[in-house]
Amino acid sequence: MQLPQSLLNDVIELAREAGGFLMARRASITIAEKGGAHNLVTQADLECEQLVCDRLAQLLPNSQFLREEGGAAGDPSSSALWVIDPLDGTNNYVHGIPQFCVSIGLAWNGELELGVVYDPNRDELFAAQRGCGAFLNGQPIEVSDRPDLQHSVIGTGFYYDRGDLVKRTLAAIGRLFDEPIRGVRRFGSAALDLCWVACGRYDGYFEYRLGPWDYAAGAVIVREAGGRCSDRDGKALAVLSGNVIASSPQIHTDLVRVVRWQ
User: Which CATH number is 7-140 given?
Assistant: First the structure.
């Protein structure tokens, strides 16, 4: 089975539709907690995910799914596996912070192949497919060309676990400032953080624990924009790595050295 030539454009159209759905639901958000007050889900998450999955199943019959709200049921080695976060940045969405997105990735025979991330607040659509480059609203993008960590701004994130993971992340931020770097940012949407690496707004990004749906699409976009992605140990990123270090190639070795899991 081969990917349909029109698939990327179809997924782009779907991501825009899903983003419009999220924007329309902001005035009437129904919230629930997933195992604690810090990890939220809204009715918009659930409905948007169903919309996206139903449409993707039509676009690519017999494909499987890894999805945040519907559970990690898909086989990562399957020929076609959609990896979906219908609303990345739910806490931002709930609190009225305009930093959230729709993230749709496709793994093909176990390799991340296609990624689309749509930021409906800025009307920014990031898209990439293996070997075809990365684009923002149809225009080519590339990672930054800053030469070293000292001139870099690095993004990060904090998982819902407020124990050891937070302490390790804060320790890594301390090591980054010891380099010293220009700054650290935490905006609360991993998929957008990766896209911001891809278009050069960030020079790098790391997070020690994530779901595959948080980074699958963004990792394709970083790679196709000329960047590099590793797991938190500096090894090659896989569909189920569960964490990520991403950056421009100029700083990747040093970024991994400073923030790798210790």
Answer: 3.30.540.10
